[in-house]
Design a protein that fits this description.
The complex is a heterotrimer of chains A (327), B (682) and C (257). Chain A is of the alpha/beta class and 327 residues long. Chain A has nine helices and 18 strands. Chain A folds into two domains: 183 residues, HUPs (Rossmann fold, 3-Layer(aba) Sandwich); 117 residues, TPP-binding domain (Rossmann fold, 3-Layer(aba) Sandwich). Chain A has a seven-stranded parallel sheet, sandwiched between helices. In chain A, β9 and β10 form a beta hairpin. In chain A, α3 packs across α4 and α5 packs parallel to α9. Chain B folds into four domains: 212 residues, Fumarate Reductase Cytochrome B subunit (Up-down Bundle), CATH 1.20.950; 87 residues, no CATH class; 145 residues, Rossmann fold (3-Layer(aba) Sandwich), CATH 3.40.50; 112 residues, Rossmann fold. Chain B has 27 helices and eight strands. In chain B, α1 runs parallel beside α7 and α2 crosses α8. Chain B is elongated, with a radius of gyration of 31 Å. Chain C contains six helices and 13 strands. In chain C, a hairpin with a 3-residue loop joins β7 and β8. Chains in contact: A-B, A-C, B-C. At the B-C interface, α15 and α16 of B face α5 of C.
């Protein structure tokens, strides 16, 4: 009989990824709603100290699998270990954050377990018939697919920032179990030679979720600092329109537009950008567009969901303050 | 008067040697012609010999009457002076030849006096013209004569010496034996005075003999040198005028993609061009008018139309040498019993590559197809077609072209417009204004073709809205194709992607025929030019009218009433595809006058209009060489100090609006389409 | 080197998504393209062939329309193609598709299998990894750079916040990330040649699947469309007010912060 909800907790360098905390919080709510126990699984090396954090975030049981070979994520070792563990535990559902690790691990695990996978979900609810139902965006969010499964375990990856990570409760106690890593050597074929974490925390323009972009209205390269400050608050990338790049204010690799990069972030904030068609061709598929421009007739306002007619040099710093309050 | 004449070979003995020298000169001349013909024959066949009547007319208009040459008064008049001198002196020589060699007694009387006078007058003008030419080329050194060769100096010196010695001979004769009609030979008469003072009779006679033979040798040298030097332009230039392409300009040759035997598309080798293309390179006299009017060159790009033609000429000569060399190698005497050696030329060209080595690829992409080069060329050299042929090779064969073009191509393929905006939203703007599609209104008299810009670009949507309002006010019954309309394909074709153009054009033609479209109104000169002049190649025959022409008709027929406003001025920017390509210059200006605007012209106007920089598919490409063409044009507009800049093309409007923004003169100068101006006046 | 490239034909990014009468995504009149991420895979496959010799087989699953996508890949330089086409494919999930794909793949010799890291229609990013699992080979996702010898692959792949350099022996499944290469534009000569290159079509019966074998494990209960985008509005007020209001709207209405 399948029982329990398992959250695969992702850690890197002994830091738990934010999405895992979000999943633990939501998992806790689900567990309470459905009466199932919430089990957290942590893989790595030297991870004992993480158990309490995970417990405080809502887990009823924490399974630690500590092994040198698991220090850094590799597809083969993690799939091997989790496959065996999940077959042993027989949960109703297994949830993973849709990070680079999750995207790589979940499908492999799903196939080995012989189950389906709902990936990159943005909604999850208890379901009478099938225990859980999921909603995920398709066609870049222009439609949604609603999924459920009668096969156990249910496997799903959840998009980061979908759920809120609640304040941890330090007093929470959980059962802490240590398991040994059962790794098939056949699975250890890829050798990681080198890991290079980018010095800048700013994401790549084409993959960023939020982009703050500056155009002719920025008046000069030195003024991009205010956009960078705003970007840093929300982990955004900083882009530029062609006018800015042509004037030499920003490097061509940051140009958004017909002859630059095509981006489709969740949020695009255009500062001092008129919104000529060539620029729109590069960012028109953004989910939400915000425009800040002095000229009320600027074309960008025709595509913006929200617009502020004003001096960006006044508005942007104020916006930075407001964003700081939110995150 | 009838007795007026002079003894033809006075003081000369052994004049029959003249004929020997003449034959030698003729042989050398013929050999020169032959050498060049061999080079032209390296090219592919092409029939240019039809339309003899127009050919003769063009030689008279452009050759004899110097129609394009005189557009530049300074060098034009200089050349005309030299030319007219040459004509009259040739006439004189012809008459004397008829008298001396064919015993036609005509060199006397009024004809003699006429020849005397005209030779002196126009010969003197020619001498003066040569001095001006030398001054211009070697002292003033205009940029367009930036490639001086020894040939230039030799020819000038040769012509000068021939003319001057001719005058001196005349002077010496008059000094020696006098001349009752010397007044008619006023130069000679004037020269005789110092000559008589400096030399005695014996010396004069000897000088005369010497100079006569010297002059003769130089004249024979002229004949021999003729086909080995720039003098050949005298014949080749006239021939080029005779052989020019007539009809609408700039229509590329179609490619039949259904032909299974076609292995190459576009041209990458010199020999793939027609003999006429190669002939162009020899006819070109390096006058530099093309260079002087090329927006790419003037904005600091490496591209130089004159250089392209001249560099192709050099390649042609290299090719000729190589081919001749191969022939020599294979002319091995056969040994009995052995297989004959491989004859004929090898197919592989191992010399310099046309694309890349002779003509840098960046030059091939820098052209905006504005055709100012071709418009100014007095002998109708065709520069742009060669560029498009090479672009076709780069796009269709090598797939080596600017990456921005790839995006534009993909967008046109997937969504029927270079911006890649969803095809299903194309009609939204206009249908929201209440405009009907042909589906909804099949009885409409006119098809209104807004084009991609008029449908998708916010700035140009305003122009569409204005035009719609005007058409409705005039009671015109029109409809649009709506989402069935695709990009006309101009950018694809001019960038060399004939395959994409073919698919877009054939689809558009099928849709329009399906709706029974007969008449089309469009606001975009690129669409206009393509629909009118190039779609017929693919079976699309429609009556196409540019919106400025249509609006003028409406105004003239009273269907559209305009209010006049006073006190505002405007400068009108002639679009390349409307002006030079289709000779529509006056109609937009008449409309501007009709609303009471004062028109001031920019430095480059009419058929010399300076391109906005977006043509030839360059709208979609990055411009990173030299100055921005659109900014240069905007500077010209700013210099005229008017309230408005008027345009009749969505690309020009976009480029000038951009130029105004980057020059930050948006407060003083506004760019408007003719339709927008009219809409404000109804 | 034997190279397989798995491609998918998807809706164009500009396509308007509507539901048909039965609540399914309506494909009527929609422009179809090769999944852009698969184009990087095709390009990489062809470059490998140019460097190491061998051939490139394009593999796709779909209806007759998928032939256009396949011909484009062949025009770019792939040598032959296999299309798995069957109406039953409409009711499959990633599990089933991976099983079918694996069967088709095992008929073709391969040293490396390339595909895009994600399809822009379903955005699920599962098939390649599942395929590797069935075949029992390693998979490496989001490759930014690929160096191959006859026996080994050295891959630079994208991870959160940086990159990773991995070495693995062939055979291997690699998924392409944007930036791996610049896909070439097919030449007209290529397009002409592509018409004559071999394209084999297989049904599920050909691959020895019966109805029971392909039941999906994860079911789609329904499709829905997002609520209509509210017309853009200008936020009134002075800079401070407007900034505050904007932040609020972004959090509460748009839910992006």
């Amino acid at each position: 009989m399948a029982k329990g909800i398992i959250i695969i907790v992702e850690q890197r360098d002994l830091q738990i990824r934010k999405v895992s905390l979000e999943l633990l919080s939501q998992g806790r709510k689900l567990a309470d709603e459905t009466g199932e126990p919430l089990v957290a699984v942590v893989l790595g090396h030297g991870i004992e100290g993480l158990a309490q954090t995970v417990a405080a975030s809502g887990a009823d049981k924490v399974i630690l699998i500590d092994d040198e070979k698991l220090a850094n994520y590799t597809t083969g070792s993690y799939t091997s270990v989790l496959n065996k563990l999940i077959r042993k535990e027989e949960p109703q559902a297994v949830l993973i954050g849709n990070t680079a690790v999750g995207k790589d691990l979940a499908p492999r695990l799903a196939q080995r377990l012989g189950v389906g996978l709902a990936s990159d979900c943005t909604e999850m609810e208890a379901d009478e018939k099938n225990f859980l139902s999921f909603k995920r965006p398709i066609y870049a969010g222009k439609a949604f697919a609603h999924l459920s499964s009668n096969v156990r375990p249910i496997l799903a990856t959840i998009r980061p920032n979908t759920f809120k990570a609640e304040e941890p409760d330090a007093s929470r106690q959980a059962e802490i179990v240590k398991e040994t890593a059962d790794i098939d050597t056949a699975d250890l074929r890829a050798i990681i030679k080198e890991v290079a974490i980018a010095a800048s925390e700013r994401p790549d323009l084409t993959e960023a979720n939020i982009i703050i972009s500056g155009g002719r209205g920025m008046k000069g390269p030195e003024n991009y600092g205010i956009l960078e400050e705003l970007a840093d608050v929300v982990g955004a990338a900083v882009g530029a329109s062609r006018a800015a790049v042509d004037s030499g204010w920003r490097e061509p690799k940051f140009q958004v537009g017909q002859t630059g990069k095509t981006v489709a972030p969740t949020l695009y904030i255009a500062c001092g950008i008129s919104g000529a068609i060539q620029h729109l061709a590069g960012m028109g598929s953004s989910k939400f567009i915000v425009a800040i421009n002095k000229d009320p007739e600027a074309n960008i306002f025709t595509v913006a969901d929200y617009g502020i007619v004003g001096d960006l040099f006044d508005v942007v710093p104020l916006l930075t303050e407001e964003f700081k309050k939110l995150v | 008067m009838d007795a007026a004449t002079r003894e033809v070979y006075w003081n000369i003995e052994g004049e029959h040697w003249l004929y020997l020298l003449f034959i030698i000169a003729l042989v050398i001349f013929s050999y020169g012609v032959y050498k060049r013909v061999v080079l032209w024959k390296l090219g592919q066949p092409e029939n240019r010999w039809k339309d003899v009547g127009s050919g003769i007319k063009d030689v008279i208009t452009y050759g004899i009457f110097h129609k394009r040459i005189l557009k530049d008064p300074y060098p034009g008049l200089m050349h005309f002076g030299l030319f007219i001198g040459f004509i009259f002196l040739a006439f004189a020589t012809a008459v004397i030849t008829l008298q001396a060699d064919f015993a036609m007694q005509i060199f006397h009387g009024w004809l003699y006096l006429f020849i005397k006078f005209s030779s002196n007058l126009f010969g003197l003008i020619a001498v003066f013209a040569i001095l001006v030419a030398a001054y211009r080329r070697y002292i003033q050194r205009p940029d367009r004569l930036n490639d001086n060769k020894p040939d230039d100096a030799i020819t000038l010196a040769l012509l000068f010496t021939i003319l001057v010695t001719g005058f001196v001979i005349q002077g010496v004769r008059i000094a020696a034996i006098g001349d009752p009609w010397a007044a008619w030979a006023f130069v000679g008469q004037w020269m005789a005075i110092p000559l008589k003072a400096m030399f005695n009779q014996a010396q004069l006679l000897a000088l005369h003999v010497f100079l006569w033979w010297f002059h003769l040798v130089l004249a024979m040298t002229f004949i021999a040198y003729f086909s080995h030097s720039k003098l050949f332009h005298i014949l080749l230039g006239l021939a080029n005028q005779f052989l020019r392409k007539r009809g609408p300009i700039g229509i590329p040759e179609p490619i039949d993609f259904e032909d299974e035997d076609l292995e190459t598309f576009g041209k990458s080798q010199l020999r793939e061009f027609s003999w006429k293309a190669l002939f162009n390179t020899d006819a070109c006299i390096r006058c530099g008018r093309c260079q002087d009017n090329c927006p790419a060159y003037l904005s600091g790009k490496h591209l130089n139309p004159k250089k392209i033609i001249q560099d192709m000429k050099v390649l042609m000569e290299e090719t000729g040498t190589a081919v001749a060399g191969l022939k020599k190698v294979t002319n091995v005497p056969q040994v009995e019993g052995q297989e004959p050696a491989e004859s004929g030329e090898s197919e592989e060209w191992t010399g310099r590559a046309l694309i890349g080595e002779v003509i840098p690829e960046q030059d091939i992409w820098a052209c905006t197809t504005c055709r100012s080069c071709e418009q100014q060329c007095p002998i109708f050299v065709e520069h742009v077609d060669k560029t498009i042929d090479m672009r076709r090779n780069l796009v269709l064969m090598e797939t080596r072209f600017p990456s921005e073009a790839q995006l534009a191509f993909k967008n046109m393929e997937n969504n029927g417009n270079p911006w890649g905006i969803g095809w299903s939203t194309r009609a939204d703007f206009l249908t929201n204004l209440g405009v009907k599609t042909f589906e909804q209104d099949p009885e409409a008299e006119y098809l209104y073709w807004p084009g991609c810009s008029g449908s998708f670009d916010a700035r140009n949507q305003k122009v569409s809205a204005a035009l719609v309002k005007l058409l409705q006010a005039a009671g015109v019954h029109f409809a649009i194709l709506g989402n069935e309309e695709k990009c006309c394909g101009d950018s694809a074709r001019k960038l060399g992607n004939e395959y994409l153009y073919f698919s877009l054009a054939t689809e558009n033609i099928e849709v329009m025929k399906g709706h029974g479209v007969k008449k089309i109104i469009t606001q975009c000169p690129h669409c206009y030019n393509l629909l009118k002049n190039e779609y017929p190649q693919l079976g699309g025959d429609f009556e196409v009218i540019h919106h400025t022409v249509f609006l003028l008709d409406l105004v003239k027929s009273g269907k559209l009433k305009l209010n006049k406003t006073a006190g505002k001025s405007i400068t009108y920017h002639d679009s390349c595809y409307l002006g030079r390509y289709n000779e529509i210059y006056e109609q937009p200006r008449e409309l501007l006058k009709a609303v009471g605007l004062e028109i001031k012209e920019m430095a480059h106007t009419g058929e010399k209009s300076f391109c906005c920089g977006a043509g030839g598919g360059r709208m979609w490409l990055e411009e990173d060489e030299g100055q921005r063409i659109n900014e240069m044009r905007t500077d010209e507009a700013i210099a005229v100090e008017t309230d408005y800049v008027g345009t009749a093309c969505p690309f020009c409007l976009t480029m000038i609006v951009d130029g105004i923004a980057s020059r930050e003169v948006g407060e003083q100068l506004k760019a408007l389409d003719i339709a927008e101006i009219l809409e404000k006046a109804i | 080197m034997n190279i397989i490239v798995y491609i998918k034909q998807t809706f164009d990014t500009e396509a308007k998504i509507v539901l048909d009468g039965s609540g399914k995504i309506d494909a009527n009149g929609v422009n179809l393209i090769i999944n852009p991420y698969d184009e990087y895979a095709i390009e990489e496959g062809i470059r490998l062939k140019e460097k190491l010799g061998g051939d490139v087989t394009v593999l796709a699953m779909g209806g007759a329309s998928a032939q256009t996508a396949i011909r484009t890949a062949l025009a770019m330089g792939a040598d032959k193609a296999v299309l798995v086409s069957d109406p039953a494919l409409d009711n499959t999930d990633e599990w089933t598709k991976a099983e079918i794909l694996a069967k088709a793949v095992s008929q073709i010799p391969y040293d490396i299998i390339l595909t895009g890291r994600i399809a822009i229609d379903d955005g699920a990013s599962q098939i390649a990894v599942r395929l590797a699992e069935i075949l029992g080979v390693p998979s490496i996702s989001s490759a930014l750079k690929l160096d191959i010898t006859d026996t080994q692959a050295t891959v630079t792949r994208e991870i959160d916040g940086g990159t990773e350099l991995i070495e693995v022996s062939l055979p291997v499944v690699v998924t392409a990330q944007k930036g791996l290469n610049d896909p070439r534009y097919p030449s007209v000569a290529g397009i002409m040649k592509a018409k004559k290159k071999p394209l084999k079509t297989l049904t599920l019966a050909d691959l020895e699947f019966s109805a029971g074998d392909i039941a999906p494990k994860m079911n789609v209960d329904k499709f829905t469309l997002p609520t209509a985008r509210v017309a853009g509005r200008k936020i009134p007020g002075e800079a401070a007010e407007a900034a505050q209001e904007l932040a609020r709207l972004l959090r509460e209405e748009a839910k992006v912060l």
